[in-house]
Please model this.
Amino acid sequence: MSAASEVSGAAEAGADGRTGPRAPVSLSPSRASDFMQCPLLYRFRVIDRLPEKPSPAATRGTLVHAVLERLFDDPAAERTVPRAKAMIPGQWDRLLSSRPELAELFAEDPGGERLAGWLGEAERLVERWFTLEDPTRLEPAERELFVETELESGLRLRGVIDRVDVAPSGEVRIVDYKTGKAPRPEYSEGALFQMTFYALVVWRLKGVVPRRLQLVYLGSGDVLTYDPVEADLLRVERKLHALWDAIRTATETGDWRPRPTKLCGWCDHRAVCPEFGGTPPVYPLEIASARPPEPGGTGQGRMGGDPPGP
Model:
């Protein structure tokens, strides 16, 4: 999970600063994907807020994202491979300061070999980015941009965009970094879901359909692009409304069913999943009053600034 996903998820889970179990009040790309993958996983993450162990792959993704974001603080001529690689140890120290629990990843590595190899892989991912994009020719309009909007239906959408480029003509490009490998062509639609989600939010906020959506896969050295049109965004809006209706129904009834897939092998919650002989925690919400109040509003939102705290 990237830094953007973590911030978005935290904002979504506690949009008004309250802690403890509560009914969902908004939707982000990550949580929408969770529900489509497994409704019970969504419940564990959003309602129960069960803890999850940090993974080396997700943490490396957060580290690489931080380097690529902060590299643009430097003048264009100084955005070089050596400079970017030199930033990695400092950004790792900064990440550890904000999340001390990440030290557990290398608790059984007294000689530091595993940590050195892990940091070396982060270096290779950063170096590969320079073969896919030229940062000396880019001046992003936004980086790690928090966006939020409320649709006319009352559905609140939010997320964090890795990078927004704006051409002199005003055309907008949304860019997302992925530290894994590009999916096979038959799975590309799923990969673009997050990007069309962001495009919808930007369209509803600014009235501008982004010219291009770009996924940069550092793990395989691929760049996946898509040029959306209004019909695409209306389609994803309908899909999100259907998802939200299903989430609200599950919230009201307490019926969150597991959906076993190959991804179950990487799930932290198998011990409490009935598919693996476990028992979920007692449902923490009052079923009779689980439906959140209908949000009012004018369909407006915001772009930029700090997301609501968890």
Remarks:
- Confidence is low (pLDDT under 50) at residues 1-17, 295-300.
